[in-house]
UniProtKB/TrEMBL annotation:
Start and end residues of each Glycosyltransferase 2-like domain: 5-158
Molecular-function GO terms, alphabetical: transferase activity
Gene3D superfamilies in the cross-refs: Spore Coat Polysaccharide Biosynthesis Protein SpsA, Chain A
The protein's name: Glycosyl transferase
Transmembrane regions listed in the UniProt entry: 225-247, 259-285
Tagged with keyword Membrane: yes
PANTHER family on file: RFBJ PROTEIN, UNDECAPRENYL-PHOSPHATE 4-DEOXY-4-FORMAMIDO-L-ARABINOSE TRANSFERASE-RELATED
Keywords: Membrane, Transferase, Transmembrane, Transmembrane helix
Any Pfam family the entry gives: Glycos_transf_2
Top-level taxonomy: Archaea, Methanobacteriati, Methanobacteriota, Thermococci, Thermococcales
Amino acid sequence: MKTLIVIPAYNEELTIGSVVALAKKYGDVLVVDDGSYDRTSEIAQKAGAVVIRHKVNMGKGAALKSGFEYALSQDYDIVITIDADGQHNPDEIPLLVDPIIKGEADLVIGSRYLNGSKEKIPLYRRFGLWVLNKSTKVVSGLEVDSQSGFRAMNRKALESINLKSEDYSVETDMVVKAKENGIRIKEVPISVRYDVPIKHKKNPLSHGFSVLASIVSLIGYKRPLLLFGLLSMVSFIVAGVLAYLALEPYYNGGHVYLTQAIGAGIFTIIGIQLFVAGLMLNVLVKMVRE
């Protein structure tokens, strides 16, 4: 089967050559250089990859879009995505392709949670991934390694997944779109390493919150009643705490604290408005789907 390995890359001159060289054993290699200002494109070409170059950095999602469009235009049967930083082992590509060849899956995700590799993940990353995985489950209903960039898909999945995300939330977007379109998803165990030359291109905290914010907005779009219901509940809890603080002195023979009482009223109104908004948006979503 005609196979393409898509590698989105941004300033990866230290590792891109070896990743391309190892991946070439399993198919054609396309590197999407997402606006790098180092020698990523040059080294990738010398290593034997076809290179598409974005003039400016547009985000991982945009890089994958370019790669998928190329794969469709060139009639590839299977597409593998793998990170350029050396975290993944290209020699594990056959593990991801095998379920597709056997007809068991359309999209295969390389999971760090199936063979104990998660123990190698730094603790702060493990917590962040847990939050992102659970958030993805809320909107997709699937418990998978939602942020793994090591994946394989057949042409059916490639044609069905119309990505909207341009940043690192693209992995979650892919899972959600696959679920909506009836794409069969399977996980296989992979190894992962974190002793790579460039560990972080972005601050891990801000990066994690950025991805989480994108997932939360997706939850709001797909399941508005759930999101607004949770926000409404938080508002009512705050209102309850403020009401207690306002009235507790009164029952002890003192006076009502006016500031806390006003705050309780404001948060009660906000909670009601959020809940009503969730109900209205939920009805609109159902009308659009029908």
